[in-house]
Amino acid sequence: MSMRNYLFGTGLVSAVMGGLTLLRSTRDGAPFTWRMALAWVGWGITLALAIGAVVDTRRAARGEAAPTDSPVHGSEAKLQAKHRKERARR
Predict the structure, then answer these.
(1) Backbone angle region of 74, left / alpha / beta, with phi > 0 → left and psi within -120 to 50 → alpha
(2) Per-residue DSSP letters for 20-86?
(3) Residue 75: how many CA atoms within 13 Å on its side-chain side?
(4) What is the reported pLDDT for 2?
(5) What is the rounded CA–CA span in Å between residue 23 and residue 76?
(6) Which domain holds residue 39?
(7) Residue 5 in 3-state DSSP?
(8) Which of 6, 14, 80, 87 sits 20 to 30 Å CA-CA off 23?
(9) pLDDT mean for each 10 residues of the chain (90 residues)
């Protein structure tokens, strides 16, 4: 799988867009409140989960076992087959 498949995945794109929305709302002169702090913490968690999913998917496609709490756990063989098929096309 090419890196662009990972970088433009929906989870990562939505996390970045959410961060841009939060950044825009803080630049509008709104005071920094506890709600804003929680929004930033939530965005950080969302970004971390999206990056973790990308890492797990990439590792599973390369033949490594995915952790049991990973969204790709159990579908490693399918990802490996897809990875091999794409490499054969090159």
Answers:
(1) left
(2) HHHHHHHHTT----HHHHHHHHHHHHHHHHHHHHHHHHHHHHTTPPPPTTSTTTT-HHHHHHHHHHH
(3) 10
(4) 56
(5) 37
(6) 3-89
(7) helix
(8) 6
(9) 64 88 82 90 92 81 74 72 75
Neighbour-count burial for 26-56, b at 16+ CB within 10 Å, e otherwise: eeeeeeeeeeeeebeeebeebbeebeebbeb
Please tell me the predicted confidence (pLDDT) of residue 37.
93
Structure tokens at 87: 């490499």
The number of domains in the chain is: 1
**pLDDT given at position 43:** 94
Structure tokens at 36: 């804003």
Tell me the C-alpha distance between 18 and 85, whole Å.
34
Predicted local distance difference test score (pLDDT) of residue 86: 74
